[in-house]
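Table S2 (text version). Query chain:
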Amino acid sequence: MSRLTDLIAKAKSKDAQLGADLEREFGILSSRLPFGLNFERHSPEAVELPLRPIRKGDKVRVLPPRRTVKKGDQRLWQVKAIYKALKTADLELLGAEKAETQTVALDDLVVVAEFRDTIYPGLISTGKVERGGDKPHHSVINGENYHVLKALTYTHRGRIDAIYIDPPYNTGAKDWKYNNDYVEGDDLYRHSKWLAMMERRLLLAKQLLNPTDSVLIVSIDEKEYLRLGLLLEQLFPNARIQMVSLVINPAGVTRPGAFARTDEFVFFVFIGKALAKPVPLGDDWRINPDDKRTTKILWSMLVRTGTNARRVDRPNLFYPIFVNKDGGSIHSVGEPPPIGIERHTVVAPDATVAIWPIRSDGSEGNWQASPASLWKVYQEGFVRLGKFTDKGMSISYLKSGEQQKVRSGFYKKVGNRPDGSVVVENPETQKKVIPTTAWRIGAHDASRHGSNLLKTLIPEKKFPFPKSLYAVEDCLRFFVCEKPEAIILDFFSGSGTTAHAVMRLNRQDGGRRQCISVTNNEVAASEQKALLEQGLRPGDLKWEQFGICDYITKPRVAAAITGKTPSGEAIKGDYKFTDEFPMADGFEENAEFFTLTYEAKSAVNHNLAYSRIAPLLWLRAGACGHRIEKLPVDGWALADTYGLLTQVDKAAPFTKAVNKAKNLRIAYIVTDDDRRFQAIAKKLPKGVEPVRLYESYLTNFSFANGE
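Corresponding structure-token output:
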């Protein structure tokens, strides 16, 4: 070791940069474990940023000519000068023995960020959906996830309650990139690259998790589960780790001469005092048929779905239910009109509205019970009324098995709702259980409840292998069921399943949980060639519209909330299992969409990047209510959950307003004078965190980069 140290010192004396690079690589190699999981961590990882404006000093690559499908020059150049009038830049080759320069059009350059570079992130809002009143906003962030994780170290360090990720499985089938290249099956360093990619992101994720009580959930298949398990043990030495086998394809994937694969694996990393909480579970969770554990009472949709669901299939089950106009009770049940008689000709009794079995596509369907049977079970309290909608009303009922459980006392009846439907003992008081590590649950079928469900939400758009909505929901349920304001993060969010699952959990218990979804806007490998041949490049509007975030994630989240497809049509079908209701009802939730930006340190220092920093301040304060989008003219302003002071001589009215305000969490104070900052901070009420701008912001990202 001493000999190598001497040689590095000599190298430094002749070439300071070379010596520093050698010293860094030597440090990495010498820190390797003599046992456990070893891999090539020193391979540099970099990412191209096509949306980032070119600045002097940037590292860039020269793009190939348009309509070229071959890779361009992969060497890195540094921008020495920019000529805005000519739209060109002077470049100098980095790391070359002999100086090499060239002048290139700005349009033919792309900024490259190496992951050891310090970044100063911001966010630009690209849209929002708001149906949730004063609830926190879910966030969807379009950006390189490593850099977004760094940004979140400023807004959410130590505050995340649960992380669920479904990273690339490293199948060798062009399912992920390393250094702008797809990693294929014949790559000898495929596993090292995957481990290096995962380690960098998990180390940042570790900083975000609440160290006293949180969970990391990672889905994986047989390609990398062994290496992932070792990596998690090394990165989280004090955590408890369990692996669950989860059946995602009951039919199995056929493999000649081998066992058909039906399952994947899910690692649960318990941080601090985190525990899987017992919850009421459905009958299909039972391994032992004699096990009497059960879920909360299950209300099913009265409108028939699936086969034989049209009026012509069962005309005797097509009849009106007359609901009183206040929506609180059923007046009576009508008779089925003969085939050929229009339903609109049926006259409803006074002060009632006729509710017909109309399917999600607007066609006439049928109910699941005859008129006489329905009236009988209604009298027993086994029919529940929803709210009036433009399609009529959502009506649910208890199927015969659930009815018998009420009659037998298995579900203890404690009263009735205003519509007459039974109220049974709160599920919280029922027996709850924690399942085994083998999950063979019909709701977790990725084809039926992942791919098919996604087609229903955003028709004509495809995404490979989305997770079952209900599988993700169940993975999270055991850890956030007692945390109604939990913050959940997914930094491989893909089609947005995790955000969708969090919305369902909120609806089930009235929670205010929020999900942060992070994904890049990569265009599928199968589509890139055609776009390149059209003369398009990453960064072009017509290219970006087909990226995963803009094409899949954002439309899926918006569709889930609004209950409408991107074309504005009501979503067909119903949610299943724990909470059954029409997808067209949507969710009472809020979501905002962002794109990550890269700011210049000088612009941040001089308060010139505020509009892009503003969303980060809002996220740190809870992502609730309105945001202070511009620098306040009066020198200070208050939002719903935070305040901003930009002129310290206006501290008196600012602190007075802060002391009167409710629900404020943070006071951001812009000043370079630490003594004045401390003086203002002392005048703030308890519970309001003082944060100094932009010192806290700049220091955070220097710290996050190890400086």
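Notes on Table S2: DSSP finds 18 helices and 30 strands in the chain. Residues 599-704 form one domain.
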